[in-house]
Amino acid sequence: MQVVYEDNHIIIVNKQSGEIVQGDKTGDRPLSDIVKDYIKEKYAKPGEVFLGVVHRLDRPVSGLVVFARTSKALTRLNRMFAEGEVHKTYWAIVKNSRSVERGVRSEDTNEWHTLEHWLVRNEKQNKSYAYDRERPNAKKAILKYRTIAHGDNYTLLEVQLMTGRHHQIRCQLAAMGCPIKGDLKYGAPRSNPDGSISLLSRRVEFIHPVSKQTITVEAPLPDDPLWQALGNAILTCIK
Questions:
Q1: Cβ distance 220 to 92 under 8 Å?
Q2: pTM for this prediction
């Protein structure tokens, strides 16, 4: 476990692909328990350690996860996430295709593009389906993306969510013909060797719920040759 920020009220960790944020039916040890043990040992806390889960990342996704260390912070962070006051930026590696060609052109690199779909979640399959028009049980999903680097075969996209839907980035990028590398569930041709998908919760920005200071944290890139190559190739015109 890698801690990238901590204070008396919050702790932000860099989740590895394959870790689950909170306990589920698999019975695997969740990241929340690992963080509790870290706090208990570091601060020699007797008894049970309080830790509030305020959001999650899909198991094959890596990157930043924010936890609350106090009930005050948990209540305020829950509201902030619900009201869109916590700004999360994701990076996704997708296969080069015609769908992203316009974002690859140097003159368009800084241009944000918007995707809008109606998503229907299938609980049994643990999968969402994207539609162009509203239909029963669908929820509107909106995200923005831009190209920040590209290689011979893959493109690195920066993504910002305007809504928070089940598997939203994975589903919407697949719907435009650009499934995330390694994401077999959403149409990638093959898995990544480590079982990950190439989606990273890269940056989180918010006003601290207690101190009111601006918090901006970035996750390191995964220790993978493609991530490192595309990360090093990020165009200097990106701001």
A1: no
A2: 0.92
